[in-house]
């Protein structure tokens, strides 16, 4: 099996030759080629080369196309702060929306024309052209509906809106941001990605209650899944933090892939989501990937695989690897998956 076939087998519910490993490595990949992500966030040719070089160097199974958390909001009109040594960020002190009712005054972004979205798509196109028949490409469509509205309104102000604003006004604004996200996600697939994904970090239980998630986030995530996902093209949802309290609802969206952060017990997550949902995660990107040792990385990989019995799992980092992640720990991650994710080991785990 090549890398693409390996991940497709997992998505079909089959036992692959070994489990796939696919870290969120865009900042790390840039650093390995001597760049910071801030230096190349408008240079898709270099970004694509960094992804391909890193995958070849370390032997993992695909590329997750990501640049920062600000690009879709920027294409909607948000002010962005560019940082040479780090990702660009939305200027929270200058929100686009002074009132949620202003949402209809914005123009839905065109992914082929507006802001830096064309650069994201060019990265996807270049990687698909070079390696699309052998490695799995996830085209992040930047922020999900809830997160995008936080960035356009200002996170603190939007959290207050959830308490004080008329519910219909909130839902109308979320319908708009869902359309914006779906446009970008579909464009990622058209550019050659095998899957599309969203990040919806502000919908985390670390920031809003599970009740608020069920009312204001998951219905719009499900709408995006319904609009974008197909049999050929799965869709992934990433929410940072400890999502144990909402992981069942995340599974109920129908997304074929759930990206799970490091704070979640993967065994519990496996038990709470549908059998055909693939979990992707969830090695701590800080400790052990940055602070730890290869031995500690191997131990965490082993724990994840054994907790899930290797069922429906793509081993990954729980969130994006930092630029200064130790290369030897990425090597250890890949080697540990080859060791504990082998077909022979999986067959033993799954018959216990």
TrEMBL record:
BP terms from Gene Ontology: porphyrin-containing compound biosynthetic process
The record's annotation in SUPFAM superfamilies points to: UROD/MetE-like
Gene Ontology molecular function:
uroporphyrinogen decarboxylase activity
Identify the residues that the record assigns to the Uroporphyrinogen decarboxylase (URO-D) domain, covering every copy: 5-340
Please give the InterPro entries that the UniProt record associates with this protein.
Answer: Methanogen_methyltrans (IPR052024), UROD/MetE-like_sf (IPR038071), Uroporphyrinogen_deCOase (IPR000257)
User: What PANTHER family does its record include?
Assistant: METHYLCOBAMIDE:COM METHYLTRANSFERASE MTBA
Protein name per the record: Uroporphyrinogen decarboxylase
Organism annotation: Lactonifactor longoviformis DSM 17459
